[in-house]
Amino acid sequence: MEKKTFVSLEKAREIMKTIPTPFHLYDEKGILENARKIKKAFSWNKGFKEYYAVKACPNPAILKLLRNEGFGADCSSYTELLMSDAVGFAGNEIMFSSNVTPAKDFELAAKLGATINFDDITHIDFYENLIGCLPETVSCRYNPGGLFNINNAIMDTPGEAKYGLTRPQMTEAFLKLKSRGVKHFGIHAFLASNTVANEYYPALAKILFETAVQLQRETGVHIAFINLSGGVGIPYRPEQEPSDILLIGEGVRKVFEEILVPAGMGDVKIFTEMGRFVTGPYGCLIATNIHQKHTHKEYVGLDACAANLMRPAMYGAYHHITVLGKENEPCDHKYDVTGGLCENNDKFAIDRMLPKIDIGDILVIHDTGAHGFSMGYNYNGKLRSAEVLLKEDGSFELIRRAETPADYFATFDFTGLFQEGQPKRFVLKDGELSGAAL
Ligand SMILES: *Cc1c(COP(=O)(O)O)cnc(C)c1O
What contacts 1, CB < 8 A, 6 or more positions away? Predict the structure, then answer.
């Protein structure tokens, strides 16, 4: 499928008048349309709820949009819980799917009344000792181990994954929880990441539904929900077909009617925790070409770097690139598109065929709406960029300002760093540095 940008050159220039590049831009219209499609795909299930994986795009403005659509929030850390609470998610609108969970994270999750999804059997005692009691509803994360296959193709290797309880542990955990007064149970699993195969959710659902029926018979507990978690992928590459969420929802419905309904478990609610599929395609990183270098290869250097988008450097991930205003020009130039980190893997693209790029051209790096900004970091003292929301009516809103040096230095106390009597080398004022050394 041809990959198009949701932003025009004119719009990018308009935004850049007040917000310099680099910045991540999100498409409100795209996010809302997609959210509605997801709800439609699972509307056959009365209790369906998508808990958006906050880590994919932890921005209150984005979370608010999704909350207005009836989505919940899937958190895995203290600060994600704080943000979700601040946005207005309350009680069972928050799913807490954490692992290696610190005590204070469980304490906050308990205080907010979040639904706890235990990653390990030992967390039951850990939680009960900490909080004093167990909630009425508890979920456990299942890891079947081995390989996860669909149609004889290996999708992923759960046996190598650190997450979840084994099958015998699931039974043991449910019995233990039941004996300690837990009334309603959930089952969760995440077996493959970023898969555009429409069979993924139905195949996962089959495993979870069969497990749910067995667990119900073995332990006699009430299974209230089954959480298919995240993993639904997006077509980063032009030759990939996008997932069809309506088809996926229909596939899950079929398995539901085959397995759960005959077992008398037709009241089970289906939950999902998608991140990438919800916002991934509806974000992009806008950057400007600031240098070009002609050595052993042709390099196009941007004002953005891997600190703004880590996926290419970290996983060799493909992100499509469009040069704004040159959409219809032939891609007859081969470039490495780089950032300025002192790391040779700081390349958004290697040997990419693109139109001839000129200094000052604006580049759109596609599909950064999930696991984009949020994976950013401060290596080389690079500062995190702004995030901007392109609204349905065509206006735009700064939903996170860019970091300043003051943010970068905020965790130091400089008073102890200088010898008595030595002049202060610089001071931070209004996010800018000034002082003797400057
Ligand atoms: C990361 C994560 C998700 C979201 O994954 P996507 O690939 O973005 O859909 C959902 N649930 C849990 C527990 C996760 O860790």
Answer: 235, 238, 240, 241, 242
CA-closest residue to ligand 1 atom 7 = 231
Ligand 1: centre distance to CA 423 (Å): 50
Determine if ligand 1 sits within 6 Å of the CB of residue 273: yes
Ligand 1 pocket mutation, candidates 52, 55, 71, 196, criterion most atoms within 8 A of CB:
55
The H or E element spanning position 302 is strand 298-302
Distance, in Å, from the CA atom of 50 to the CA atom of 275, rounded to the nearest integer, reads: 10
Single-letter residue type at 248: I
Ligand 1 within 6 A of 55 CB? yes
Phi–psi pair at 47, nearest 5 degrees: -95, 10
Contact present, 232 and 274 (Cβ < 8 Å)? yes
Give every CB contact of residue 61 below 8 A, 6+ residues apart in sequence: 389, 397, 399
- AA identity, residue 274: M
Average pLDDT, the chain: 95
Closest CA to 72 of 41, 50, 46: 50
Per residue in 173-184, is it b (16+ CB within 10 Å) or e — as a string?
Answer: bbebbbeeebee
- What would the pLDDT profile of 130-175 be if each residue is shown by its tens digit? 999 999 999 999 999 999 998 888 889 999 999 999 999 999 999 9
Query: What does the DSSP 8-state code read for residue 381?
Result: G
Contact 314, 375 (CB under 8 A): yes
pLDDT at 333: 98
Return all residues near 350 (Cβ < 8 A) that are at least 6 apart.
336
pLDDT at 419: 60
Angle at Cα 271 formed by Cα 268 and Cα 277, nearest 5°?
150
Residue by residue, DSSP assigns 120-173 as STHHHHHHHHHHSS--SEEEEEB---S-EEETTEEEE-GGG---SB-HHHHHHH
Residue 387: strand pairing partners: 24, 400
